[in-house]
Specification:
- Two copies of one chain form a homodimer.
- Chain A contains eight helices and nine strands.
- Chain A is α/β, with parallel strands linked by helices and 208 residues long.
- In chain A, strand 7, helix 7 (156-165) and strand 8 (170-173) form a beta-alpha-beta unit.
- The first copy, chain A, binds a DNA duplex (24 and 24 nucleotides) through residues 5, 7-8, 31-33, 42-45, 47-48, 51, 56-63.
DNA sequence: TAGATTGTTAATCGATTAACAATC
DNA sequence: TAGATTGTTAATCGATTAACAATC
């Protein structure tokens, strides 16, 4: 089986969001054409994306909404929530701690860290903020899969190194830095500045 | 001149971040090979990306750091900050209000809105939260270019419609919904769930 | 000058789109 | 059955990579 192309992978959460909504509305089946109307994607592409993810439809009927949801949740690795540490309790870190939506997206933040003495010991959205120095010993008793970096860019690589020594296997990086990681650790950038760049540069372009 | 490919456009903010850092360190020139070492991109691709953005280098010397920064800032439309309204003062909205980094990225949030009576009238990171109903009349006296949507997914389209009637030209959408907009309004998704999906599904894959 | 690096043209690779047979 | 929709194979399109001449 060929690996799924990354653009394809990035579209799956969009389909899943729609399908979950339809499921709540009690819709049983949906065709790719209809998904396309609601997500702005080409129906053929949707069919290919879903097929990459292992979803199967029925000719003349379409895709079963509930089944396809389950299949996408599995494929995205969102079935069992992965425990995560968050480092950097600034504005962005605070937001993520309060973003209960991640529970639907495979992520379970279990602890947050900072080095600012004004933050350490305080509580944000129900999470106590620990000092970064205590991270390693805390990690020992847990099974932490993902590290989330919401520190200033300058310290991102150091934080990544600490997280890796804690045994995490994936990093979700909110800084614009490209992190150096060993081969077994996967780093993905949230790339907020990239999407903001796309928006601003399009606005700055002479209107077509 | 051919339009810049979107993947290329998304990489520019990454280069800019690095170049700004180098400029602070007093570095005068840098070659694409060196940029590649620091960002993980192929040097040839960097050369092409920079050329798309209108940056020019000198053979045997490389690209002037300061000049290239300025060129990228211009190309990305980050020279003059665009005034923005933010709708939805939940966890994510609160984060963005506190994320002073956007001032370096062309964005100037001028007001924030919500409908929750517990939030309206309060102050978050120095921004007073207004009721959504007052948005239209406030917009009249201002020149708002961008609307940021950090509401629950279910209300995203309604909010988008309101923002459009305020005369904004671009939407930065933090919900997983695909927004319907008229042709002259550009909508870009921050797509947090997409990057989280990429990370989780890679973690779930059998290790290569 | 010699040599490193750019800028650009051509070749490759991969993703998207189109076409169509299979099937419920 | 007839017809809508899937699944898949082939064709197209566009982005990435390689090759190399231009140039400081």
């Amino acid at each position: 089986m060929k690996a799924i192309p990354e653009p394809s992978l990035r579209r799956l959460p969009v389909y899943l969001e729609l399908l979950r909504e339809l499921r709540e509305q009690g819709v049983e089946d949906i065709s790719c054409t209809q998904i396309g109307e609601r997500t702005g994607q080409d129906p053929t592409q949707i069919r290919k994306d879903l097929s990459h993810a292992g979803a199967v439809g029925k000719p003349r009927v379409g895709f079963n909404v509930a089944e396809t949801c389950e299949q996408l949740v599995d494929f995205l690795g969102w079935r069992k929530n992965v425990d995560a540490f968050l480092v950097g309790a600034g504005a962005m870190g605070t937001a993520l701690l309060g973003h209960e939506l991640f529970l639907k997206q495979g992520l379970n933040i279990v602890a947050a860290f900072d080095i600012d003495p004004r933050k350490v010991g305080s509580e944000i959205h129900g999470f106590e903020i620990f000092h970064l120095d205590t991270m390693n010993s805390l990690a020992r008793r847990m099974n932490i899969g993902i590290g989330i970096i919401t520190t200033p860019a300058a310290t991102a690589q150091d934080v990544a190194d600490s997280l890796i020594s804690c045994g995490i296997r994936g990093i979700w990086n909110f800084t614009p830095v490209r992190l150096q990681t060993p081969g077994h650790v996967i780093a993905v950038n949230a790339a907020l500045s990239s999407s903001l760049g796309v928006l601003c540069s399009r606005l700055a372009m002479p209107q077509p």
